[in-house]
Amino acid sequence: MYQYNDIDQTLINERVEEFRDQTQRFINGELTEEQFRPLRLMNGLYIQTHAPMLRVNIPYGLLSSKQLRMMGHIANKYDKDYGHFTTRQNIQYNWPKLEQVPDILADLASVQMHAIQSSGNCIRNITCDPLAGVSADEIEDPRPYCEIIRQWATLHPEFSYLPRKFKFAVSGSPKDRAATQVHDIGLHVKKDAEGRIGFEVLVGGGLGRTPVIGQVIAPFVAEEDILSYSEAILRTYNLFGRRDNKYKARIKILVKETGLDKFKAQVDAEWETIKNGPLKLSPEAIQRVKAQFTPFAYQAPASTNAVSSPEHNSGPFRQWLKQNTIEHKQVGYRVVFLSLKSPTQAPGDITTEQMNIVADLADQFSFAQIRTTHDQNLALTDVLESDLFPLWQQLSKAQLATANIGTITDMICCPGLDFCSLANASSIDIAQGITDRFTDSAIDTGNISLKMSGCMNGCGHHSIGEIGILGVDKKGEQWYQLTLGGADSHDSRLGDRLGKAIAKADVVDAIDDIVHVYKEQRTTNETFANTYQRIGIQPFKDKVYDNH
Amino acid sequence: MTIIKDKSIIDDAWHAHQDNESLVDNSIVNLSYWLENRDSLKTCQQALGLLVDGDADIHSFKDDLSCFAIIAINIPDFVDGRAYSLCRLIRNQYNFTGEIRAVGDVLPDQALYLTRVGFDTLKLENDESAQLAINKLNDYSVRYQID
After folding, report:
1. Residue of A nearest to B58 (CA)
2. Is B81 in contact with A278 (Cβ distance < 8 A)?
3. If you average pLDDT over residues A14-39, what whole number do you get?
4. Is A106 on the interface with B (CB under 8 A)?
5. Tens digits of per-residue pLDDT, B60-85?
6. What would the CATH number be for the domain defined by A134-290?
7. Which of A181, B19, B68, B109 has the fewest CB neighbours in a 10 Å radius?
8. Do B146 and A279 touch (CB under 8 A)?
9. Which of A113, A114, A140 is nearest to A129 (CA)?
10. Alpha helices of A155-299 — where are they, by DSSP H?
11. pLDDT of res. A62
12. A:B CB pairs within 8 Å
């Protein structure tokens, strides 16, 4: 993985000191709340319901075991012994003290991590496919490009006061595991007829109040031009994006109001003037970063039947193996997902103790690296098949082997009203209700993506869940709007509204009704999405609203 | 108000022209005044500056840039980042070689980014904030971007 050089390290150290000074001036009353707000947000610090919330970047979802131990150390020293992984592959701490945040940042810097631009109206963490580098269908590892974009975007002098936040996601495979279609810029690695690497560029996707699927603005931008092309998009957005209404300030609204063709013409005109300037990447510059993402020294498998001895015939192990691991491009290895959706924890939450255990297991079994996923889970991506059984045993002890990856209890969920000052409704207790109801039947039900947000800002990506749940406030009471049929894979789709909002007490029953209709109507092995497409929304509507 | 340039406080050689007063040397006129009186102003002998808002349409004055010794860009609110891109366009695409000045709601914490995108001078609220801005220019010894 990418290792900081002197410049990288100096830059984040200097950022820590800059933020320390800003925090101190705010505490001393030399900066007003209004002035401090964008400055602290640009460094990931929110003021939340109970305490500040600090969001720490995990660039493209890749962590070393040393970094994960530091995450655990921070949770222990400055927080309540746990952290929360987000859909954009970052980690959040919900209980730090404002005056301690500079010290947290200094601790992070000591392991090459930071919170730069993890919030605010600037370019956010660059996310990517959690299976980058290990999936068989990959055209090219997207992580070096993510790192190149990360460096260009970090402390960018021109793009730090944008109309609104700006998110990049990059996928190196035809199958999109990074939700690129719902990002401000989504990049798909492509190869042209001559085998040159480039990107299909999508623009204007996003969730939130006005969910929009991104559109292709350029079918192929060569790798050497990706920074200049991105800069042209950002400059056009910075100049023309709306600033009169924060709900209309994202690039998706600019693209919609301008029209894709005209917007593209503006971007192309800008690009023409900078394309051959200093942003053009030399093959050496790309290679320097690529050299830090070389494949691991994989062993030849000892036997072809690594998980077939009698001790492996444990039902729970078999179930876990089937549900929580997938194939690796290297014969003899598998990718292992660590579910952070156990019945005893809020979705995406992890304790200090678990972080330390995962770090140890990564050292022991997976080349000392850990990935964070868009679904708020972790992955050890390079595990020898013969190590799967001992790994499973240890994960089980740590409550990290819940065999529910991809099922209805593996839901995406924001922190909701319990922590977030934006939320209209709670999500964690609904998640708990769903977990309690479906834990025993989840695998039998088959894979269903359930995504839940506590307000229309949509941090829980409800719009693209096969089942989406959106918390709304109705005269001070918490109600929930359900949607069906959303998708977040390579063919993203926004869910359809089921009907009027449902009272909190009835939400879990309503989900049960929806699952019931699916199980009743599905043909053999038919997915939820296909059943929904075939039978439409009406049978679900009838069942849910007739019962309530 | 205090002007800084090259990490020092400097005297302001420029006068903010008001629409109803007669033109003196080293006046900065606003864009609407310029557009209304362009023909006569182009023949005047005085050194002139132009004041534009951060959201100004560059096409309305790009052909006139050579008439000015200074372009002042007004930032209505420090979170409004349009001035940064406008400055880049004036400097890099339209090759303006005179002084570009940031005026309006400028935070000392923004001094580094403003100078990096091409502003030569910054107008701060008072000497104290100007001094702080100068200190802030020294916050970083490295950068990722080639400015």
Report:
1. A239
2. no
3. 95
4. no
5. 999 999 999 999 999 999 999 999 99
6. 3.30.413.10
7. B19
8. yes
9. A140
10. 226-240, 251-258, 260-274, 283-290
11. 97
12. 76
